[in-house]
């Protein structure tokens, strides 16, 4: 058996940044990814918040800035939201993941594709991975929403999910390029939202629903034909998957192992954004594991667990939204209400948290003092 310091299961966002941070500090690191190449068939829309762009220097060719949000009610009326200086990034997800893999490899990590993790056993030094004939001092599970490692280690796994499905289209016209187009509709996107994103290469159109309801993507696209021009448009691909929606998973400390990203449930139950926490905590874990293995630093899990988002308030809002499922007529009415607009602004543009003083000050601000809104 080959001896290594760190084995990472899953070459997604969390696994790759963890590998880069550990390898660059000198830890012998191998990433095991089941797909034939990193970034193959991504399941995600890949929208990133500005905070990620500020911390990670992504090459310009893989990202496109989008400054505003256009929020539609079911009758297709809309309001425009923005916050000066803020933006989202649409991404070429395959390209971006490939670039993250390149960064990890350049830092000394080995990336092994076509390598599906099935089992591991504890040994005195750490973990044996018999399928890969490797023994690792530390093991990281970054293998997504249905983590095989979580079930192998018998720790709590994700139980609540949203179902997300998306198509990529070429030549959809009439879509304002500087907007994330977000659709509220309890019929098509029950329990969540629909979206149309002018992406890096084409237009990404998708929706997510609570898992008891099948996403009705074809019907949704039929609806969009009323406001966008699909005359010359062609569908070039489809993606989708499960989005953990039950909040961060809490498990007892594991000997020389930890879970990251979707495997640890670190996805906002309200916005379904999981890439930001996957990247932030992935990097933190890589640093902590290298410090622990190479210099006798503290238990990495103890450091990570202090940084895990709790999502308590967002979880509450998600459950409320799911249980009450507002009728479309109510959503049509709400979109015109100043308080609802401020709430939407707070959800989209307060990434430091809905419970911050600043978020609530903005939420309760008088309409005429609110210069961030453009209502059409
Ligand atoms: C339709 C959809 C749209 C989304 N849109 C957004 C968005 O716009 N913005 C956002 O922030 N978040 C979004 N999310 C959530 C986001 O994609 C995830 O939170 C994020 O990808 C988590 O990264 P990760 O590295 O933890 O897991 P993943 O990206 O899932 O990576 C896990 C990797 O592990 C590999 N793997 C799995 N099992 C094994 C195994 N047994 N052996 C070896 N390898 C294995 C997988 O092939 C994969 O490459 C979306 C999710 C979906 C489904």
Describe the structure.
With 376 residues, the chain is α/β, with parallel strands linked by helices. The chain has a domain of 196 residues: 3-Layer(bba) Sandwich (FAD/NAD(P)-binding domain). Helix content is 30%, strand content 25%. The chain contains 11 helices and 18 strands. The strands form 3 sheets. The chain has an 8-stranded mixed sheet with strand order 16-12-15-14-13-5-6-18, with helices on both faces. Strands 1, 2, 8, 9, 10, 11 and 17 form a 7-stranded mixed sheet that branches. Strands 3-7-4 form a 3-stranded antiparallel sheet. α1 runs parallel beside α3 and α1 packs parallel to α6. The longest helix is centred in the last third of the chain and has 21 residues. It starts with a strand and ends with a strand. The structure holds flavin-adenine dinucleotide (FAD). The site of flavin-adenine dinucleotide (FAD) has 38 residues, from α1, β12, β16 and α6.
Largest sheet: 8 strands, mixed
CATH class of the domain at 2-64 and 89-159 and 246-307: Alpha Beta
Distance between the termini: 65 Å
What is the CATH fold-level name of the domain at 2-64 and 89-159 and 246-307? FAD/NAD(P)-binding domain
Strand order of the largest sheet: 16-12-15-14-13-5-6-18
Q: How many β-strand runs? A: 18
Low-pLDDT segments, ≥5 res: 366-376
Helix fraction? 25-40%
Question: Globular, elongated, flat, extended or rod-shaped: what is the shape?
Answer: globular
Structural class based on helices, strands and sheet pairing? alpha/beta
What's the number of helices? 11
In terms of DSSP E residues, the strand content is: 25-35%
Rg, Cα atoms, Å = 21 Å
Task: Kindly report the average pLDDT value.
Answer: 90
Bound molecules: flavin-adenine dinucleotide
């Amino acid at each position: 058996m080959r001896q290594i310091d760190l084995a990472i299961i899953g070459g997604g966002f969390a696994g790759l940044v963890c590998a880069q941070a550990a390898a660059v500090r000198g830890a012998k690191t191998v990433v095991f990814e089941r797909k034939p190449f990193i970034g193959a068939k991504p399941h995600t829309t890949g929208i990133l918040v500005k905070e990620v762009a500020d911390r990670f220097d992504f090459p310009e060719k893989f990202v496109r800035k989008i400054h505003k949000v256009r929020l539609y009610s079911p009758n297709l009326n809309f309001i425009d939201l923005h916050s000066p200086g803020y933006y989202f990034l649409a991404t070429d997800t395959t390209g971006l993941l490939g670039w993250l893999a390149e960064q990890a490899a350049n830092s000394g990590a080995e990336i092994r594709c076509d390598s599906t993790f099935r089992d591991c056993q504890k040994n005195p030094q750490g973990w044996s991975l018999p399928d890969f004939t490797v023994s690792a001092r530390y093991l990281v599970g970054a293998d997504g929403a249905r983590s095989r490692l979580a079930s192998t280690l018998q720790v709590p796994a994700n139980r609540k999910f949203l179902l997300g499905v998306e198509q990529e289209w070429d030549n959809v016209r009439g879509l304002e390029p500087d907007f994330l187009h977000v659709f509220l509709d309890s019929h098509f996107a029950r329990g969540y939202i629909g979206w149309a994103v002018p992406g890096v290469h084409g237009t990404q159109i998708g929706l997510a629903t609570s898992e008891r309801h099948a996403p009705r993507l074809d019907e949704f696209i039929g609806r969009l034909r009323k406001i966008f021009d699909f005359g010359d448009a062609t569908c070039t691909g489809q993606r989708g998957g499960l989005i953990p929606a039950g909040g961060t998973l809490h498990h007892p400390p594991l000997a020389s192992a930890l879970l990251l990203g979707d495997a640890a449930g670190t996805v906002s139950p309200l916005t379904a954004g999981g890439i930001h926490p996957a990247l932030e905590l992935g990097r933190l874990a890589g640093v902590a594991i290298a410090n622990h293995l190479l210099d006798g630093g503290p238990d990495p899990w103890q450091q990570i667990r202090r940084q895990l988002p709790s999502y308590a308030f967002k979880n509450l809002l998600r459950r409320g939204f799911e249980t009450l499922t507002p009728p479309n007529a109510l959503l049509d009415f709400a979109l015109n209400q100043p308080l609802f607009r401020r709430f939407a602004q707070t959800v989209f543009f307060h990434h430091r948290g809905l419970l911050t003083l600043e978020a609530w000050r903005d939420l309760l601000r008088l309409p005429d003092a609110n210069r961030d809104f453009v209502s059409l």
